[in-house]
Prior knowledge:
Blueprint: E1 2-3, H1 6-13, E2 21-26, H2 35-49, E3 53-58, H3 72-79, H4 89-95, E4 97-99, H5 107-117, E5 121-124, E6 141-145, H6 154-159, E7 165-168, H7 171-180, E8 185-188, E9 193-194, H8 201-210, E10 218-225, H9 235-248, E11 252-259, H10 261-270, E12 279-280
Parallel strand pairs: 2-3, 2-5, 3-4, 5-6, 6-7, 7-8, 10-11
Antiparallel strand pairs: 1-9, 11-12
Amino acid sequence: MWKINVAALLVALAMPTHALRILLVGPVLPWMFGPYSAQLAGIGHFFQQHGHTTYWLPFTYARLDPSKAYTADEMAKAQGVTGPPTVGLKADFAARTTFVSVRQWAPSQVNKLVSTHDLDVILTLCDLDRLNVDGEFTVPAISWYPNHFNDLPKMDRRQISPFRKVAALSPSDATMLQGRLPDAKVEWVPHFMDIPEAVVETDKKALRREYGVPEDAFVVLMSCGNYDTQNRKSLDVSLLAFKALRETHPNAFLYMRVISITEIAKAESKAIPPNTNPASL
């Protein structure tokens, strides 16, 4: 079951009651490994269930003919990557989505897609450093913005300028971004999770035995993957925070699931979950 902050999402997108043609923009294809693809595919599936039509622009891939539309299998073949799965949410979403391409990730090029496919709204979930800001979008554009810093970097202030609305991933980010972007509409729209309808106590105990977690522990999960060589996930800060937590919760147990750049690259090339070696503290 997808847990979505629906109210905040609808406010952020200013969704009308009629069906929309929505362009989802991300760095990879929806069935590839990664949080951006998982979140966009999940939200795209949500849109489809509510009668909207979805398009997908993977802006980092080889530039294809922007005047054409592609199926998921056609896009995968053109990019030389594994195609979509045959079952599950991502399979259903990909089968009902039209894939498009641009010569360059820039508003002027995206506006051509808007005209060609009669699109109503643009939703991006990605870092904006590769966006070539050469003008404004011709339809409402929303950046589901993954901020990595305490403040909005000067470069990102320019990169985010074409977007009329910004969806922040945390309340503090929403406050900061609204202060830095007084002309934009900023809403807090956190990422969502696919979780079971019900959690059975026996299942929890079995999982704890499998991973060596004490039954009475207060479990903290830290899960991340790092594409870079620098410590951009701030694991050291998270460990210090866990140390402070232990002062008030002595039975706290930290479970870390950290994925290396090598495993991420392998997974993305094959569109499969990465091999992980969980560590617990």
